[in-house]
Amino acid sequence: MKFKDEIVLITGASNGIGRKLALSYASEGAAVITCDIDEEHGRQLVGEIRDQGGSGYFYRCDVSQPEQIKQLMTTITHEIGVISILINNAGISRFKSMFDQSDTEWDEILNTNLRSVYLFSKHAAARWKEKQLHGRIVNMASTRAFMSEPDSEGYAASKGGIIALTHALAASLAQYKIRVNSISPGWIQTNHYDELRAKDHHQHLSKRVGSPQDITKACFYLTDEENDFVTAENLVIDGGMTRKMVYEH
């Protein structure tokens, strides 16, 4: 029970990587709070956690809306307690030509993926500062912060911003012994893993596509209280793909 007595908040936890993180932290003894706009799957997830003997809670929250974030953090504090670990996982991807993308669509991506990270971190850190608690934050970035496909400007900008925001927050919060790190996943297959092709796996130096469990292990490392020398770091978890030199023949 590595995370017994911890209270973990995971944003965007109803599906994908966030869902696996929630189940994994709960299995290690943490009280897991999830939030998402997908209420149906969020409540199913909490039911699964509780069926397995864990402690889980779900709150609906649109993380692109500052007032909803503020209200959520207040509600959590009153109903459950002060969180000790924050995992900013919520995000959306909208791959669309810049010539067709509206300003509103751009703002939606940046507000959901980047501004929410700042706001959740701000609210959590304010409580930790007041209570003199040494909280831990992990922000979910992406290898798309370093490399791109066409029509991904908003997503790439938001993920690059998360990495920069991570080390800025780490610098600002170091005086309170609050650690802030980020993870940049590569190709993480969250479902139908057995349907992947051999060439999908072989384009990685690891010779396999990643799974949510790979990200869970990295989160566990970064949020372990004993790893207090690790802060302002970005862990690339991508099977070596961003280090692989590719030539067209």
TrEMBL record:
Coiled coil: none annotated. It comes from the Bacteria. The lineage of its organism: Bacteria, Bacillati, Bacillota, Bacilli, Bacillales. Pfam families: adh_short_C2. It comes from Halobacillus salinarum. This is SDR family oxidoreductase. Belongs to the short-chain dehydrogenases/reductases (SDR) family. PANTHER family: SHORT-CHAIN DEHYDROGENASES/REDUCTASES FAMILY MEMBER.
